[in-house]
Amino acid sequence: MRHTPILPTLTFLALFISVPSSAQTDKPISTEKQYVVGFNLSPDGSLLRREPGGKRWLPIAQKGAIYTGDLLLGLPSAVIQLKNGMRLELDNDIEQTSPFPIVETAVRLHDSDMFDLDFTMERGRAIVVNGEKVKTKVRVRFPFRIDKDQHWELTLLEPGTRVGFEIFGRWQKGDEFKVEPGAGYAPLIDVIMVVLKGRVQLSTDEHQFHMKAPPGPAFIEWDSRHGLDELPRTMKQLPPWAQKTDLTSPEAKEKIQILEKFRKLVVTKSPGVALDTFIHSKNPRERRLAIFAMAAMDDLDRLADTLIESEDFDTWDAAVLALRHWIGRGPGQDQKLYHGLLEAGLPKVEAAIIMQLLHSFSDFDLNCPECYDVLVEYLRHPRRAIRGLAYWHLRRLVPAGKNIPFKLDGTKEEINRMYTAWRKLIPEGKLPQKKAKNDSEK
Amino acid sequence: MRPIIFLATLSWLVVLTAEANAQYYRRGYRYPYYYGYGPYYPYINPTAANLYGTARLVNAGGDLMIKTQQTYMMQEKVKQEKLVTRRKAIDEYLYEREVLPTPEEERERKRQEQLMRSRNDPPLTEIWSGKALNDLLLDLQRLEGRVAYAPSVVIDQEILKHINVNTGRMSGSIGVFDDEKLVWPLVLATKTYEPERKKIESLVPMAVSQAKAGAVQAETLIELNDAIKKMTDKLRENIASTPSTDYIRAKRYLNQLKEGADALQDPNVSKLFNQWRPKGDTVAELVRDMTNKGLRFAPATTGDEPYYTALHRAMANYDIALAQLAEGQYASAKPDSKSPGHSFFQSPVLREKTPEK
Predict the structure, then answer these.
(1) Same domain for B34 and B67?
(2) Residue A151 belongs to what H/E stretch?
(3) How far is B241 from chain A (nearest CA, A)?
(4) Which of A181, B111, B170, B343 could disulfide-link to B332, CB 3.0 to 4.6 Å?
(5) Residues B54, B136 within the same domain
(6) B 99-128 residues inside an 8 A Cβ radius of A
């Protein structure tokens, strides 16, 4: 079997390179006119900005200016204070209490005469907090079309009103990768809005709703397959992620420490150095953070290098999840990755195989022995990325194989041994054995 | 007995020793401190010592007898306890036999479980493999004779043209050979597989015409199986350059061809091509027809899946209605019912009569 020579198999050249730079400046360098709309209320480096059309990420100092048009990426608890007294809190899901995997949060602010706050909710979770004014007008834009329009309008009726937004996208089970996508080919995007405090009037293209914090009609959801809820849903209490979180568990404390360490590195060195330091760390949590941060910053070059070098399954697991999260952001993301693979020199077929393996198999396929046959055969594929992805799927679908060593760059014999072990577990033409039900399940 | 003899002997020795010591002491050769009391040890009369020893001897004998009897009693108790244990074991066995299901009951329970699953939105794979349809077929065969008055569920005849059946001997069906031309998946339709594809395409019409005439010749079957195997092997060799979904579809089609070739070996293959096709304007008629011919549903071939889903829905609805009617019939036939059977004829489920022929 021919092994892949050590080449960057997932190297992206023109499209996605993020060039870290130690020269940090708050001055905008875009040619479009940008306005200062607020400042960073959180510590240095909690917010990163990327100018429109740019590729560099720059940390924003505490009290540093926030410009319209910049893409803003926040560490947990990053807060933007606007000139008019409003706040925008960028949140993450440290405690993993949200039903959606909120990995990173990104927003873009806009200048507006008609609205007190006008921003694009790119991804993640953001909380709009009203100042002292009543009947504050907010426009929330989305990077895709929601029904007929691409934004919602809110009127925050009371001072101190808090409204949370979450956006999550993922390719559904069975959504095949299409080299030439047609109309309607897109991941499932979910948008939710929750009134956390006070009262809000929500106006969409066709509807107007009055909503209030729990207990009351506080929750409304839109998704790209079923559209908007007919009416806001009543909540008895705030969702777990909105309640006062107890971050005293050892796990939460460790995560906060790691984030703080990352933030400091971003400020004292650069985002690139922070990523490099963390990816080579012995702490698996730090490596995991680095991987998701790479995807959040669109630094797929670095992510590809990580996959090329790493033989650690945890790193692969995190990287695959990060890539699946990345391609699920919205329509066209998976096409970007596919074309990036072609640009890197991969044959079309292999790029298509990689993309399909980054999507999910349907329930029907998972009930067919042929699906497992192809995954096991891919373990001997000449392309390292395909071997790794096939192993990742098998490990998840057949937990009984978790003890089979993850050998991507072994000798021919080692790889054959891995293949034989999986083949023994899943004979050709057969489905893997299901775990026997215990009495309690009966 | 041996332990008792040993104990008795030991008793004798103890007594003799006492006697010996008594004599020894009488001779006065022992140290005055032997018994630990020196010159203050009480003097024992030799005659008394003799009597003492004799008494001890008699006691020992008596003890021996008592202990022997006690041993017998203990042995007896052990035997009794064994009997008690055995009786308890038998009671437990009888209890378990009463309470635990028999193999037949267990099979029936599993059948009911499968039936519930097949009625209520089973996975598509089970519908398309024919399993759900066969579960419903079995239940309908059981219910058919038990209900006098059943609603009809009409079947679109277009659906039945795409339903495969077999006799149950083989798992596959001849459905893949139904169309005049094989419909190859994209990957297998490429030039890479042209030689194998042409070979199979030349053999299939020959095999089908032989099957319709009575039986497929062995050479034809062997050649066909070889060609399918060669194509399968080639597909595996080219896996590195085959997208996963295309590979899955191609492999699945080759498996259908293989199962179809196996089905050609069925002794009744000519009937499967000619008379033994699923027939019926309603679900009831289809069930009756398949029952009379001893047929079962075979897996769907590529492209037949929507028809299987449609037929499943029709059969599930009919099966549920029939089961409700059967239940209602039995409920109204209870001794305390005022008019046995009356509530059945007035059942709201009934909407139309079965068309009379």
Answers:
(1) yes
(2) strand A149-156
(3) 6
(4) B343
(5) no
(6) 123-125
| Chain A residues with CB-CB distance to B248 below 8 A | 365, 368, 370-371, 374
Residue of B nearest to A372 (CA): B248
In a domain, B105, yes or no: no
Same domain, B9 and B91: yes
- pTM for the full predicted model: 0.72
Q: pLDDT value at position B46?
A: 80
Which residues does chain B have within 8 Å of residue A377's beta carbon, measured at their own beta carbons? 236, 239
Give burial (CB, 10 Å; 0-12/13-18/19+) of A331.
middle
**SS3 of A146, please?**
strand
B245 and A381 within 8 Å at the Cβ level: the answer is no
Residues B236 and B289 in one domain: no
Q: CATH code for A36-242?
A: 2.60.120.1440
- Segment A177-200 shows an average pLDDT of 90
* Token representation of residue B352: 């139309």
pLDDT per position as a tens digit, A270-313: 999 999 999 999 998 899 999 999 999 999 888 888 888 887 88
What range does the domain containing B154 cover?
A: 111-163+278-357
More confident of the two residues A249 and A347: A347
Distance CA A337, CA A9 (A): 13
What is the pLDDT confidence band of residue A421, given thresholds at 50, 70 and 90?
A: very high
Residue with tokens 């897996």: B299
* CA dist., res. B85 & res. B88, Å (int): 5
Count of structural domains, chain B: 3
B243/A contact by beta carbon, under 8 A: yes
Residue after which a domain boundary falls, among B54, B71, B99 = B99
- The phi, psi pair for B289, rounded to 5°, reads -65, -45
Residues B69 and B92 in one domain: yes
| Contact between A205 and A162 (Cβ < 8 Å) | no
Average pLDDT, rounded, for chain A: 85
Is the backbone of residue B130 left (phi > 0), alpha (psi -120 to 50) or beta? left
Looking at the DSSP bridge assignments, the partners of residue B66 are none
Element (H, E) at A58: strand A58-60
Contacting residues for B271 by C-beta, under 8 A, at least 6 apart? none
Number of residues in chain B: 357
Contact A42, A77 (CB under 8 A): yes
pLDDT in tens, B94-143: 888 888 878 888 888 888 888 888 888 888 888 998 999 999 999 999 88
Phi, psi of B62 (to 5 degrees): -65, -40
Residue B89 tokens, joined: 């074991």
Domain boundaries, chain A: 36-242, 250-425
What single-letter amino acid sits at A244? Answer: K
**Cα–Cα nearest to A94, from A237, A258, A284:** A258
